[in-house]
Amino acid sequence: MGQVENTALSLANVSKAYGRVRALENLSFNVAEGRFFVLFGPSSVGKTTTLRTIAGLVTPDRGRVEIFGKDWTNQPIAGRGVSMVFQSFALYPHLTVYQNFAYPLVEEKVAKSEIDRRVRETAAMLRLDKKIDRKPNTLSGGEQQRVALGRSLIRRPKILLLDEPLTNLDAKLRHDMRAELKRLHRQFGLTIVYATPDELEALSMGEEIAVMRDGAIVQIGSPDELYEAPRDLYVAGKIGSPHMNIIQGRLAADGAALETSIGALPFARRLQTAQAGEAALVGIRPNDIRFAGGGERGLSASIAMLEPLGDVTVVSVETGGQTLRMVLPESAAAGLQPGQPAAVVLDPAKFHIFRASSGQVIA
């Protein structure tokens, strides 16, 4: 990572156990100032513990937490310049929106006129200026979420931590709030660390995504990097919708093909680092499979299922006991019927080849 950008946050070999449960295991990553950084993975991989460690709510057993170059590992919560928004919003029900916003500033003994200015500015920015005298229970879920955000933003944090903040909202609101958060990120140049189990959220918002598994990071990259070059099967299966097709087999003697139940799949290049006969897997994205053109030899298959998704259709085909999914423009799938024979071509240049033993990619 280039050190030209200022590093806002750095975790080095952070581990945390609760009894026999290892919540974090040698977790290391850096977040550049102004970056929208996403921690992505299913529940109980350690996303919340990571955020709580950054905020100072959890002290790690080992490792180091630096914020803007200063060691905060064993320091108190106050003074970090970090603010966290929880999944549950945690608003004060008996206070108005105005009072909810003002509360952290009153605690910090900010002057009354300055509080008023910042509350009104924050309310306007979050489009809550008309709701400023209302109590949280009279607001919609999206408005409550914006109040929770505003209460964190009003403290002008250097780093904003968001723990699955959109989980409790319906699909339309989630979409709107994703756009809202991206707008706020740009407007303030905030450094955001955002935890989510939702792939669409991670890919549409994250400039950099850390894919987590069992309290550790498997791979960090931009959405494109994770999609184009997953380092192992776990990342390959988590990124990309519909999911990557995975075909099992054994490597041919010359290391130039995978022998599978649907026949030999020749590679674009010979593998140098693999053993003949080694169990391996080929992953291919649904977008990288197509029907054979005139005179082209393809794998003989039959159409199993059609899932129309508006402008595209997911077509499942069966060949040699294997179901492969492909994505076609709606117009190309219009005449297809289940049971119809088809010939499909897999693009060898787009194969992802993994070791069966470790799940690691074979370069």
From TrEMBL:
UniProt GO MF annotations: ATP binding
Domain ABC transporter intervals: 9-239
Family: Belongs to the ABC transporter superfamily.
Keyword match Transport: yes
InterPro entries associated with the record: AAA+_ATPase, ABC_transporter-like_ATP-bd, ABC_transporter-like_CS, ABC_transpr_MalK/UgpC-like, Mo/tungstate-bd_C_term_dom, NA-bd_OB-fold, P-loop_NTPase, Transp-assoc_OB_typ2
Name the UniProt record assigns to this protein: ABC transporter ATP-binding protein
Keywords, ordered alphabetically: ATP-binding, Cell membrane, Membrane, Nucleotide-binding, Translocase, Transport
SMART domains: AAA (SM00382)
Keyword Cell division: no
